[in-house]
Write a structure and sequence with these properties.
This protein is mainly alpha-helical. The chain has one domain. About 75% of the residues lie in helices and about 5% in strands. Strand 2 (about 320) and strand 3 (about 325) form a beta hairpin.
Length: about 525
């Protein structure tokens, strides 16, 4: 096969870097950055020794990995910074207190905070922030700590792929080289059922069968609204805003249900004075500016006029010593400066910070503190993402990923489409990140689809949806959830509760994937 050894031994060798990552993260409990570096080094040794990767191939693959990492990290860094500015300035308190004021209905409160608001936060920042913000709010409203952590982990998981300004979506689109509009069409459509299941799950976690019964109408109405908004935003080129807009629509829909029941505004903040420290319009301004500016630069003539302003890299074709050819890449991982979220996030940070300081809502040193927190928080993430991405590109350009895909497709046969989203779950479980899951397994899923002669778009969508839902059972997030509700040491109990809901949801996605593959091919 194009110079590749398709024997079982070659497949086992190709699997070793992934197994090493799994073992070091989950058994040895290494930090992600250390596990990523060791796994990358092993992938390099195997790629050079067993798969014939040349020195030129190494530098080309590493260059691609750095280019792809830069694309993702330019979203992550300012997203984290924006969160800390909003949090440390007190704006998040104003936003949170308003959400507590929306409804007194227990089920609507649960859906609002863990399913809708947490998804909105995921859209802007992600990286555990939805759990950090929403879970303590729920405890303050009378939910048990375990229920607060569990509902938040499960509830917002649908928003992860298009969260963090769509960093996970962009990752899988880039590592698979699939056309964005077509990928968004299938992925957005396939997310409709998982969104509903997440809503029903949080209602069941909180109130059992009675919660399910009471949640039927709001979950169906709100879930379909959020799903259609997310699908529409992604299809029409606003991937960065898909989870943001969907989460915002969900919050508004909960308020609509509350108002219809005469409950809107019946639960007050701790004090009106505390709420008034920062006006709601000021607190929400950075997010509003972010949404409006992204929409503005997506207007047809403006977008077309600025489309040539980009940072991109070209890479030559390379061939391994075994004869495996990797085609040349032009404008690989291109960063369109006026459609990539980076500039808009920077502007939102700058203008929001100015507004907060000039309005007397916080001191100027808060901004410096937010920057220092961002640097501290992002160092490990940067190292782990960079080396995981480079590992994935080494595996791809040496032919390892191709061998693994063929072996998996042949071994699972017609059941592979059902199993595809579970591979996404595995990636999120081992790395704690849907972005990293897509890096590790995105190309494998597409090459498995090619080997089977079925739609790579559907298979890639199943991968990222599985990784998104699977983030609810990532040990790193369970630790975060336990910590934020003062339940350190209870991570196992939280994971036990989230696993069943996660796997039920992923199994539904697996069945849907299998049906679509049989129908579309």
């Amino acid at each position: 096969m194009n110079g590749l050894d398709v024997s079982p031994g070659a497949a086992v060798m190709g699997l070793l870097p992934i197994l090493t990552l799994i073992v070091t993260l989950t058994v040895l409990k290494w930090k992600a950055k250390r596990a990523a570096v060791v796994s990358w080094a092993l992938a390099l040794v195997i790629a050079a020794g067993a798969y014939g990767l040349t020195a030129t191939g190494f530098f080309v693959a590493s260059g691609k990995g750095l280019a792809l990492s830069l694309f993702v990290l330019l979203i992550i860094w300012p997203s984290v910074m924006l969160y800390h500015v909003v949090q440390d300035s007190g704006a998040m308190k104003t936003i949170s207190r308003f959400l507590l004021w929306v409804t007194k209905d227990r089920i609507l409160q649960c859906l609002l905070l863990s399913w809708c608001f947490a998804a909105f936060v995921q859209g802007i920042s992600g990286f555990g922030m939805p759990v950090v913000i929403a879970a303590p709010l729920m405890v303050g409203m009378g939910f048990s700590p375990v229920a607060a952590a569990t509902t938040t982990l499960v509830g917002h998981s649908w928003a992860v792929t298009y969260g963090s300004m769509a960093s996970s979506y962009y990752t899988i689109q880039l590592v698979t080289s699939l056309p964005g509009p077509e990928l968004s069409y299938w992925m957005g459509m396939m997310f409709l059922l998982p969104i509903l299941i997440c809503g029903f799950s949080v209602a069941h976690i909180d109130k059992g069968l009675d919660g399910l019964r009471r949640a039927v109408l709001p979950v169906l109405v709100i879930g379909l609204a959020m799903g259609l908004v997310m699908w529409g935003a992604a299809v029409f080129g606003f991937e960065q805003l898909a989870s943001v807009l969907a989460g915002a629509v969900g919050c508004a829909a909960v308020a609509g249900f509350s108002r219809a029941a005469g409950q809107f505004g019946t639960v007050r903040a701790e004090s009106e004075e505390a709420t008034a420290v920062m006006p709601r319009g000021v607190a929400l301004f950075p997010y509003g500016f972010l949404v409006v500016s992204i929409l503005f630069f997506q207007i047809g003539p403006i977008k077309e006029a600025l489309s040539g302003v980009k940072l991109a890299f070209d890479f030559p074709a390379v061939t391994t010593r075994l004869g495996y050819l990797v085609e040349a890449e032009e404008a690989y991982s291109a960063i369109q400066l006026f459609s990539h979220p980076f500039l808009f996030l920077l502007a939102a940070i700058a203008i929001g910070s100015l507004l907060f300081v000039r309005g007397g809502h916080c001191r100027s040193d808060v901004i410096g503190g937010a920057f220092r927190k961002t640097v501290k928080q992002s160092v490990n993430t940067t190292i782990s993402i960079t080396f995981m991405v480079m590992m994935a590109l080494l595996m791809n350009d040496s032919g390892m990923t191709r061998i693994l895909a063929v072996s998996a497709a042949e071994g699972a046969g017609s059941l592979y489409p059902f199993l595809a989203p579970f591979i996404g779950v595995l990636g999120s479980f081992m790395t704690g990140s849907n972005t990293n899951s897509n890096v590790l397994f995105g190309a494998l899923q597409v090459q498995a689809a090619v080997s089977m002669g079925v739609s790579p778009l559907i298979m890639a969508s199943a991968q990222s949806i599985g990784g998104s839902i699977g983030s609810a059972v990532a040990p790193a997030k369970a630790v975060l959830g336990a910590t934020t509700v003062n339940l350190t040491g209870s991570e196992g109990e939280i994971l036990q509760k989230t696993v069943a809901y996660c796997f039920l949801n992923v199994a539904v996605v697996g069945v849907l994937t299998w049906i679509l593959i049989r129908w579309v091919g």
